[in-house]
Amino acid sequence: MKRYIALIAALGLALAACATEGGGDGGGESCEREDLTLVQEGVLTIGTDEPSFPPWFDFDGGPVTGTGFESAVAYAVAEELGFTADEVEWVVVPFNNSFAPGEKDFDFDINQISITEERDEAVDFSDGYYNVNQALLGFTDSEIASATTIEDLKAYRLGAQVGTTSLDFITDVIQPGTEPLVYDTNADAKAAFDAGQLDGLVLDLPTAFFVSAVEIEGSSVIAQFPASEDDPEQFGMLFEEGNPLRDCVNDALANVDLDAIQQEWLSDVVDAPIIETG
Amino acid sequence: MTEAEASRRSPGMSPGRARRLAFHRRQRRRSLLIGAVSSIVVFGTVTLVVVNSSGWEQVRQSFFSWEDFQASFPDILSGFGRNVRIFLIAEAFILVVSLLLAVIRSSRSPVLTPLRLAATAYVDLIRGIPTIILLFLLGFGVPALRLQGVPNSQEFWAITTLVISYSAYVAEVYRAGIDSVHDSQTAAARSLGLSSAQSMRWVVLPQAVRRVIPPLLNDFVALQKDSALLALLGVQEAFRRAQIYVAGTFNFTAYLAAALLFLILTIPLARYTDYLIRRQRSRVGGTSL
Amino acid sequence: MRERLLELRGVWKEFGDLTVLSDVGLELDTHEVLAVVGPSGSGKSTLLRCINLLEPIDDGQILLEGVDIADPEFDADSVRRRIGIVFQSFNLFPHLSVIDNIILAPTKVLKMSKEEAQVTAQKLLARFDLGDKRDEYPDRLSGGQQQRAAIIRALAMNPALILFDEPTSALDPELVGEVLEVIKALAAEGMTMIVVSHELGFARDVANRVLLMDEGRVVEQGPPEQVLVEPRTERAQRFLRQMTGPR
């Protein structure tokens, strides 16, 4: 019997000894390339979802092509940090996993991730690099196309991807009479929309525009919802909590000409009617 | 007490017998005691080790948080109503469709040959396709064709997918049950002048179905869990409700809450199945299923 | 009045390479009791199963009241309701009570009403001492009771002929008697029967004629005093010696 007690006590101690404290170093780190904290030596590891969609990335070629707004921003930041294009590696990170707490296998993730308070508690964000407008995708010759106010929209079946600010927009702002439909991915949401199971799909404006222009025939951006002026929703690059690289990326971002990149990739003016969120 | 007195008190109780009985009583008590003590020691130790390990507090917060459970449970419970509805409806159809398939496959009538071929092809094909692929094909693919008269409700397509998928498996369960009813039963039935169909209906099937109730219940339990597939079509059932909560808070207790609801249904059903298996042997014969 | 009920002519039956019935012929008049005896594997059971069309024959004729029922185009189901059979292992339906076992065929095949069928069944049960078992399930009955119930089940269809396939072979010795009593009683009432059995004493008492089979052939036919006591053929004599043991 005594032997067993000793064995169990030993096990307990061993387990206690295994516990490690996660932790970062103090601030004030140098942003010289050699001093950067990276998950992989000599390489800048960037995460995004797969497949990646225009106008943010290239669908066929993926993020490595540099085609697309976010791809361009990522490579511009990499260059500022001192990495050539060959020294950038991409890893696949499903959208919903990116802002969950825990260790990350990337240096930062860029994937149309909006900066929110809840997410900020689990991870760290860079400064915003794009102001987001939510938008409503619908079929051009359908009833919902004639909606002009938030009130009008309450009568329809709306949908969005789970865990997105688009879904929050439906639940918090539009507050429709029927429960919104919620999908694992935007791909599923688009399939459902195409199958006529939804009246309207809420997406960020550039994505909505791309879907209507290229992907789903007969659809259009029924409305855009302007972001608030003093506290706009913004996309940010996502970091593991406490990652000192964040500050260096912010420095790099400050030197990147975001306006020019936006001009190149997101310049299509969308003529969608504006619905005030009041 | 003398030996003589002892045997007068309980007729038939010789001293030897009394000694034997007492010994067995002691043995039983000892076994119970050892069982109880060792269980306490093992489970107690595991619990102590786990609770005192360094990661425990984070795990507890993340998975077993009472506040998050309370916060998420009402929504999850109301979503669960949708799961229950679709698996109940699906099961009713599955039991009927698969029985038909099994009877068709077991028949030997030449008139039924095309049906028999179709049934075999159906079972082989469907058992090879992951249910989730079927769900996407039927739930998104078919409605996208915009055919006249084709329903577009998510619940309809989820139920249809589950019925198509599960009938293929359950048909085989029925078929095994039918095959397990001994030929002599059919011989006796036919000898009385019952037709082939009558034999099947009144003699073989009643026995076959009773025998396969345990595996049928097993498949029903699996079906209950697969009702979560409804979420893929966008419906906010229990799993999706939990997922929405988790996405907003990064606390995983909501998933456990959803799992708990499923367990409340499946565990009693599993115990009931065990009870039926035990009770069944003499009535309609055992089964190797 | 006696009429020819059943006649077999030149019946052959093969299972693959094995010839199980070889040019078998027999005749049976109404009210006759025919006992079929012989060593194991002689084809006795197969013979019965061919007569009630559970097995098809490969050649020959089976004439029931003059009509060849073995003709492949003949409706077998209509024949089977006229020929009852009692199996060695009873084959009661375990999911039905005794009375439901008995009324199943009369209600479904003869289209009797449930009440009518129950009345008939009850009478038969009472007659054969099973009245108090009507609602029991077969697994609660002794072997002898089950076999008696099986006999009643066959009787309830009011058959022209009943076949018995070793009805007591699966019974414990002390239960054999009660079943033989039932068969004797049926014989006394004039039921036409073919009984395959090892019980030679019983065959001697009840049968009008005895058929001895060996290796698929009819070796000897005749009254019991002949076949079972002073057989004429060498084969039959050998069989008798084997069955009764050295004296």
The share of residues in helices of chain A is 25-40%
How many DSSP-defined strands of chain B? Answer: 0
Helices of chain A, by number, come to: 10
Average pLDDT reading of chain B: 90
Can you tell me the residue ranges of chain A where pLDDT is under 50 for at least 5 consecutive residues?
Answer: 15-27
Radius of gyration of chain B: 28 Å
The first-to-last residue Cα distance of chain B is 57 Å
* Low-pLDDT regions of chain B: none
Mean pLDDT of chain A: 87
> What letter string, H or E per element, gives the SSE order of chain B?
HHHHHHHHHHHH
Task: Give the strand tally of chain A.
Answer: 10
N-C termini distance of chain A? 73 Å
Question: Sheet bearing the most strands of chain B, described?
Answer: none
Radius of gyration of chain A: 22 Å
Shape of chain A: globular
List the helices and strands and how they pair.
The complex is a heterotrimer of chains A (278), B (289) and C (247).
Chain A: H1 2-18, E1 44-48, H2 69-81, E2 88-92, H3 95-98, E3 108-109, H4 117-122, E4 123-131, E5 134-139, H5 150-153, E6 158-161, H6 165-174, E7 181-183, H7 186-194, E8 200-204, H8 205-215, E9 219-225, E10 234-240, H9 245-254, H10 258-265
Parallel strand pairs in A: 1-2, 1-3, 6-7, 6-8
Antiparallel strand pairs in A: 4-10, 5-8, 5-9
Chain B: H1 3-9, H2 15-52, H3 56-63, H4 66-106, H5 113-128, H6 131-144, H7 154-180, H8 183-191, H9 196-211, H10 213-226, H11 238-249, H12 253-284
Helix pairs in contact in B: 4-5, 4-7, 4-10, 4-11, 4-12, 5-7, 6-7, 7-9, 7-10, 8-9, 10-12, 11-12
Chain C: E1 4-15, E2 18-29, E3 33-37, H1 44-51, E4 59-64, E5 67-68, H2 76-80, E6 83-86, H3 98-108, H4 114-127, H5 143-155, E7 161-165, H6 173-188, E8 193-196, H7 200-206, E9 209-214, E10 217-222, H8 224-229, H9 234-244
Parallel strand pairs in C: 3-8, 3-9, 6-7, 7-8
Antiparallel strand pairs in C: 1-2, 1-4, 4-5, 9-10
Mind explaining what this structure looks like?
The complex is a heterotrimer of chains A (278), B (289) and C (247). Chain A has helices at 2-18, 69-81, 95-98, 117-122, 150-153, 165-174, 186-194, 205-215, 245-254, 258-265, and strands at 44-48, 88-92, 108-109, 123-131, 134-139, 158-161, 181-183, 200-204, 219-225, 234-240. With 278 residues, chain A is α/β, with parallel strands linked by helices. In chain A, strands 7-6-8-5-9 form a five-stranded mixed sheet. A three-stranded parallel sheet of chain A has the order 2-1-3, with helices on one face. In chain A, 44% of the residues are buried. With 247 residues, chain C is of the alpha/beta class. Chain C is built from nine helices and ten strands. Chain C has a six-stranded mixed sheet with strand order 6-7-8-3-9-10, sandwiched between helices. A four-stranded antiparallel sheet of chain C has the order 2-1-4-5, with helices on one face. The radius of gyration of chain C is 18 Å and the shape is globular. Classes of the chains: A alpha/beta (278), B mainly alpha (289), C alpha/beta (247).
